[in-house]
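cache lookup: miss for this entity combination. No prior model stored, computing from scratch. Input as submitted by user K.M.:
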Amino acid sequence: MLLLISIFVFSLSRASGDPRNLYLDEYATDEMYEAWGIKLGLDKPLYIQYLTWLRDVMRADFGESLYHNREPYDLIKERLPATVSLAAIAFCWAILVGVPLGVLSAVKRGTFVDYFARGFALLGQAMPVFWVALMSILIFSVELGWLPTSRKSGLDSYIMPALCLGWLPAAALLRITRGSMLEILDGEFIKLARAKGVSPIGVIWKHAFRNALIAPVTMAAIIIASFLTGTVVIEAVFAWPGLGGLSIDAIKNNDFPMMSAIILLFGVFYLAANMLVDLLYMVLDPRVRVE
Amino acid sequence: MINTSNILKPNYVVALEKSWYLFRKYPIIPLGVFFLLVFVAIFAPILAPLDPAQGSIRTRHIPPVWLEGGTAAHFFGTDSLGRDMLSRVIYGARIVVMVAVSVIFAGGIFGTIIGMFAGYLGGLVDEIAMRIVDLLLAMPFLLVALTVVIVFGQSLTQMIILLIIFSWDNFARVVRAESLRIKGDAYIDAARIAGASDIRIVFRHILPGVFGVVLIVASLRVGQLILIEATLSFLGAGLPKSVPAWGVMVADGQGWITTAWWIAAIPGIMIFAVVMSFNFLGDWMRDYFDPRLRQSA
């Protein structure tokens, strides 16, 4: 899997034309051109080029960033905490809001709570994230002056970016939790639990919820993947000093080594999230363990 | 049976109740938005009061008509280059329809064909097709799109192609599952015994069976597609600046958020309304035609 991603990134890097054009300007002489060709290993066949590139990448050596003139690895290490802390807060809020509201809206189906929860989900899934972010800056920073407009400073600077980033995942989680709760609550074993006198709260949280968890857990992996793109947008609007901002910079400045490093990192990240979910399945669903 | 409960109510109450019932049963407002969008997109040159690309520095930052200082000449006001917002919004509808229609059609057809063959033939074909689908899922789409823009520059066709590449997988997966189910039916065996070729079986006997699912997936995907297109355009990786796409317009307004908020707000509301309507329509179609898909899609 990772191999396929790496081949893709490599071929994109070659599809962009001669890599020398990225490094050298029009005043370069033919000799310089040839020298760079040998330095970059362009005189060798394509698969050798790929293998050398792969070897360098394994050592976290992506070549120097063209814009920052530094190693992408160091830059990423520097910027990573800002993005991870933001994504972690957004993830927590998505789970803390999405899952309980989903359960509540399934249990209290057709009531005000249900309509509120579904409205919340519908809005979250239909509003463009960048627009929500801009509008919240307009309302809470410009008009009311409650929160800082952008950039990372104190804890209050996290509020708006995290809320905006987490809304869409919260909506998705809510819908999927609601759906699977509704299905489970119809089950025979729920009737049995009710009949034998388990308290309503016990039925909902111990019997139904544990079984309804599988779908939202799968969703969680997709959410983590969606943060990869979500942070790019949010960081662009809020001028957040994280990986998203780094990739936007890379794009604006045609910084290919930087970009390929980020894409590979995100790919690894996504696969790791998927593996984690597979492990969680085993914990949640004994049937998977047996197989 | 005569409904006696209505006799005691005045006529207008009955009429209201009836229309409320219709509203709940059919997605009337989303359908309205949908038809309005298509109508506006088709007749944009006739409907737009002014040229969407023509601005003048003197008409810059005029607020919408309902605010102080707004004029009837510019219903939604003007942007930072003095261009008429209403005309730009109207032309933006064209872009939305163009992108949505072409991507859904191409992605849907391609994904359906791949999905049918993967499901029907199984084995190596299935394995390869599903691996590619997994690969696409593991790619951070936005970043790939941004990188492709670095490499090849930006244009409408390029963005449509990118979106097609990243939207067929959904169709392929659902269609594959459906084809697997149909494959077990007796009439497929009958067709095979009668000597039909694989290609004939797939297109004559499986295709009609998966058609419904394809429609539903398409309607569920449209909203997402429009959002992705808008996001790419907002980040400056989708459409060129000169095109009046709604995402580009929001990006234009970002710098003027404190002084002329409507430049960013209005196109955003348009995206929101359209995506919301499509989501509603998709959900409604799924529940109405095929509730089984609730979990998978």
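stored under new cache key. The two ends of chain B are 40 Å apart (CA to CA).
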